[in-house]
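Table S4 entry, U3 small nucleolar ribonucleoprotein IMP3.
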Amino acid sequence: MPRPLKHHEQKLLKHSNLYDWETDRNDEAVMGKYGIRKRSQLTQYRKTARKIRELTVNLAELPPSDEVRMATTNRLALLLYELGLNMNPKATLNELKEFEASALMKRRLPVVLKEIKMAPNIESATNFVEHGHVRVGPTVVKEINYHLKKGQEDFVTWTDGSTMQKKVQRFRDEQDDFIGK
């Protein structure tokens, strides 16, 4: 049994919450893993995932043969598939009930850059995006919260004239001698 706290110790502990410190540490780890800089962004991802799960729970309350339930389930599954958030375009409600916020965070551009090995870690991937070294298709993207849809990761490249592109070409011995070094 621990000793009772002295008066000044009680006063110090009055302003700190000993119950929430573990969740704060977990939030920091998640934010670091996905390169999220603001806690409000993490909260927004979690709210979006929760709304999707709540929608599936509400749809599950309808009778299984209801046309609205079937149509909405199919639309939601197809939408999540097209956004790259779900692997099954014909997902059932039970599969959609398990939707997590991490699916949203994995589609952020810096995370995909690390995944396709264009960056060694999330921090450098974030810097590449912020400094304008990356484009998706013909568009240069400088927003680190940019979400890639399904199939867009094939169109992620370095921008023309980017120092990173030059370094990669020099490493692969593909740099044009006419352009110079």
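The first helix runs from residue 7 to 13.
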